[in-house]
Design goal:
Blueprint lengths: L1 H8 L3 H17 L5 H5 L8 H13 L3 E2 L8 E2 L1 H11 L7 H8 L9 H16 L2 E5 L7 E10 L2 E8 L4 E6 L7 H15 L4 H28 L3 E4 L7 E4 L9 H29 L7 E4 L11 E9 L5 E10 L4 H23 L2
Antiparallel strand pairs: 1-2, 3-11, 4-5, 5-6, 7-8, 9-10, 10-11
Helix pairs in contact: 2-4, 6-11, 7-11, 9-10
Length: 356
């Protein structure tokens, strides 16, 4: 994010307009955009040579690319990301698209699976892309959880509910996790289940972390009061307890035992913090999000993008998601409001259904 902000600060009004016109032209027809084409659409009348110089500067910044030596320019993945984050103009939802999506409201009201299939079909038809519909999350009591390492940056959680329902979800674990740490995480989580729901489990884990943190603070307090130790970056994930004059403590057995206990508590607290992230990472997201190419670990298909939005129940809790998968040259300005409206529509339909 910081890198994109720095690049944006290096662009003046002319380069921003040239960049925006190139991206919009590419998203519209999938073809490289040349300098002569831009001379007819820019608000400022400049020569094709001037535009070519601007495009070369944008290419140097990593925002544009030239497929061929004499061809026009196309946006890079970084350029698309910059456009989506900073320059995208989201349109209002077309009435025609709204009518097609609303037509799903009167179908399969007694069958959640049928309703979501209908919504997926309508979303595909409206966007001409592949639809993605994640069904409502199960909130029944849990029976067992297993974490399986798939790659360095990807893991699978297998959730078994007390009513026999089983869910598999792919997520990105905290950095540095190994198969053995995944097993340790599963053992810790399963010891706390006791018929709790996922929401209950998160609260219990937060309470456990707070309790261990308080124990650590109490033990460290005596050392700090005695001037033996001091907190460095307190409250941060990288906080440390710095011990002064450690050599003077070697003859004090009780102080050594206290330091070992503090070290053990630090290790335990760090592990629990990592584990506590697991349920959160399998259940994140709010509002429409756009993943371009390899930004999405699950749909890292070359030349593809994912536009996705969660939907909520009557209690404003995220229970599922809908989205569209298509080429990177999606018409984002049109697709974003469609996905957003569809997510709101599904949330309303399911909330109304649960109140029947």
């Amino acid at each position: 994010m910081k890198e994109r902000a720095e690049i944006l600060s290096q662009m003046n009004d002319r380069s921003r307009e040239v960049f925006r016109r190139v991206v919009e032209g590419y998203l519209e027809n999938g073809e490289p955009v040349g300098s002569r084409t831009l001379t007819r659409s820019l608000s400022e009348k400049v020569s094709a040579a001037t535009i070519r110089n601007v495009m070369q500067d944008l290419e140097f910044l990593g925002l544009l690319d030239s497929p061929h030596v004499s061809a026009g320019r196309v946006p890079t993945h970084l350029g698309l990301r910059m456009f989506v984050d900073s320059l995208l103009e989201v349109r209002d939802l077309d009435d025609e698209d709204r009518v097609k999506l609303d037509a799903t409201a009167g179908t399969n009201l007694g069958d959640v699976g049928g309703l979501l299939d209908q919504v997926g079909s309508a979303l595909s038809g409206v966007t001409q892309g592949a639809s993605l519909v994640l069904t409502p999350k199960h909130e029944a009591p849990l029976k067992h959880i297993e974490f399986v390492s798939l790659a360095q940056d990807r893991a699978l959680v297998v959730i078994v509910f007390a009513d026999g329902h089983v869910e598999n979800r792919v997520f990105t674990p905290p950095p540095g996790q190994t198969p053995s740490s995944m097993r340790e995480a599963a053992n810790f989580v399963n010891a706390l289940l006791e018929g709790r729901t996922l929401s209950d489990l998160r609260r219990v884990m937060a309470s456990e972390i707070a309790r261990r943190r308080q124990e650590l603070d109490t033990l460290a307090a005596d050392l700090i009061d005695a001037g033996i130790a001091v907190w460095d970056q307190p409250g941060h994930s990288t906080e440390r307890l710095i011990v002064r004059g450690r050599a003077d403590l070697l003859g004090d057995e009780s102080a050594e035992e206290e330091l070992d206990r503090i070290r053990s508590l630090f290790d335990d607290l760090e592990r629990k913090r990592d584990i506590a992230e697991f349920p959160e990472l399998t259940d994140e997201g709010e509002g429409v999000r756009i993943f371009i190419g390899s930004e999405n670990k699950l749909f890292s298909l070359s030349g593809s993008s994912l536009v996705v939005s969660p939907y909520m129940n009557a209690d404003r809790k995220i229970i599922g998601a809908v989205g569209v998968i298509g080429p990177t040259r999606l018409n984002y300005g049109r697709i974003v409001p469609i996905v957003d409206y569809t997510a709101q529509l599904v949330g309303r339909l399911l909330s109304g259904q649960s109140q029947r």
